[in-house]
Design goal:
Mean pLDDT: 94
Shape: globular
Largest sheet: 9 strands, mixed
CATH class of the largest domain: Alpha Beta
CATH superfamily of the largest domain: Mur-like, catalytic domain
Strand order of the largest sheet: 7-8-6-9-10-11-12-13-14
Helix content: 25-40%
CATH topology of the largest domain: UDP-N-acetylmuramoyl-L-alanine:D-glutamate ligase
Number of domains: 3
Length: 458
């Protein structure tokens, strides 16, 4: 597959210098470390770096054409290659990704939601790999740069592209969805994440459903029947597949129970088939994530055997209810991010675990909750009080409200003003026969406390 000169002429605001020197390129890059021979380099200005400063390096490494901002044109050296000037290089990058998407002979699956989108993306990738050549979002490259990057890095023999779409401001999902033009789209759920910018759950719904509204005419949307807000809008979509544990969805799940260490057992019925599995992932929320992935897999024609065999190969995702087992204690590393719903789900993992006697929670602040931050943190104290936790250690300006609401049934509860104080406490505390949940938003860097716990196990 190639980006041709005709494709370049289709870029909005593009002015092409030295068009006679343009050779159809086989790859597009914004990072000189990934430049290949016969590639197109797009110079994007980010928070820390400006791609325009690396143009010479890109050309030396094999770029045969460059896309630059028209404001930077006069500052460039003379290059004996095609130079494409545009008003906004980030927009041009998205347009190039859309061109590549249309050239791919692949189904595009787009996934978003307040919680579980990365896990659902990874489960979906694993299941579909039993039948197809799958290319998917790496890590959580799910923004206005990450979505185009994923599409542009898809090999020409890709049969299915699985994309994750993230957002914390209005308009971001619509932007990346228009680039992706998904054949299938799924929203995991609607919750309280990013409500500092999206105002409330209805604002989250409005932002997320932009994904559904940009599905191709021949495509389908997958609706979580158990999510009240999503269920309320299913009448708006003709080509839909419903899934859930309640009501009469097209793909119906039944929770059979949990193993002693908290792994969910499920029964799933769809069309004329029925399957039973024990998930290799912790948490009740992952039963919903898995069910949604099965709904996609069945739509794309996977057999019962392909699904059950692929399920056994699903791996834990770092920092997302990641279980780390040691001789003396168990760590549940859920440090990637945090919001009220994901904290409740993580607490359930502790209550479901029957293999360790002592339950310990180390929790930091949840971010992007706006004016509701104090109340949302205080409300979590009620959830912790119900979860039969022995020890709760909190850190952060809002997590102190969690600590203040804890009842006397929790024998050990402490709030720490500094990270060094908490680190010293963790280094000395009794951990024998304990399961320890570490949780907090990304900016709290709670993974540092996981590292201290891991060192104690060595």
């Amino acid at each position: 597959m190639r980006i041709t000169l005709e494709d370049i002429f289709n870029l909005s605001t593009a002015v092409i210098y030295n068009p006679d020197l343009y050779k159809s390129v086989t790859s597009v890059s914004i990072d000189t470390r990934t430049i290949k021979k016969n590639s197109l380099f797009v110079a994007i200005k980010g928070k820390n770096f400006d791609g325009h400063n690396y143009i010479k390096d890109a050309v030396n490494k094999g770029a045969t054409a460059i896309v630059v901002s028209n404001r930077k044109l006069n500052t460039l050296d003379d290059f004996n290659i095609s130079v494409i000037s545009v008003r906004n290089t980030k927009t041009a990058y998205g347009e190039l990704a859309n061109i590549w998407r249309k050239k791919l002979k692949a189904k595009v699956i787009s996934i978003t939601g307040s919680n579980g989108k990365t896990t659902t993306k990874e489960i979906t990738k694993q299941l579909l790999s039993a039948k197809y050549k799958v290319h998917s979002t790496y890590s959580n490259n799910n923004n206005e740069i990450g979505v185009p990057l994923t599409i542009l890095s898809a090999p020409k023999n890709t049969e299915v592209v699985v994309l994750e779409h993230g957002s914390n401001h209005f308009g971001e999902i619509e932007y990346t969805a228009k680039i992706a033009e998904p054949d299938l789209a799924l929203i995991t759920n609607i919750g309280n994440s990013h409500i500092e910018f999206l105002k409330n759950e209805k604002g989250v719904l409005k932002e997320k459903t932009a994904l559904f509204d940009n599905v191709k005419n021949t495509g389908k949307v997958f609706i979580n029947n158990d999510d009240k807000l999503l269920s309320s809008i299913k009448k708006n979509y003709k080509n839909k597949i419903t899934y859930g544990f309640t009501g009469k969805p097209d793909v119906k799940g039944k929770k059979i129970g949990f193993t002693n260490d908290g792994y969910g057992k499920l029964e799933i019925k769809y069309k004329t088939a029925k399957l039973q599995v024990t998930l290799p992932l912790l948490g009740e929320a992952n039963t919903a994530n898995y069910l949604s992935s099965v709904a996609i897999a069945t739509e794309l024609g996977l057999t019962k055997k392909q699904i059950t065999d692929a399920t056994k190969k699903i791996k834990q995702i770092p920092g997302r209810l990641e279980k780390k087992e040691f001789k003396e204690f168990t760590i549940i590393d859920d440090t990637y991010n945090s919001n009220p719903e994901s904290v409740k789900n993580a607490l359930l993992v502790l209550t479901q675990n029957k293999t360790r006697k002592n339950k310990i929670v180390i929790i930091g602040d949840m971010f992007e909750l706006g004016e509701t931050a104090k109340k949302k943190h205080a409300d979590l104290a009620k959830e912790i009080n119900k979860a039969k936790i022995n020890t709760v250690l909190t850190i952060g300006k809002n997590s102190k409200y969690i600590n203040e609401g804890l009842n006397k049934n929790i024998s050990d509860k402490k709030h720490f003003a500094t990270r060094s104080q908490l680190k010293k406490h963790i280094e000395k505390m009794e951990l024998k026969d304990s399961i320890i949940l570490v949780k907090g938003s990304r900016g709290m860097k709670m993974e540092e406390f996981v590292e201290i716990l891991e060192k104690r196990a060595m």
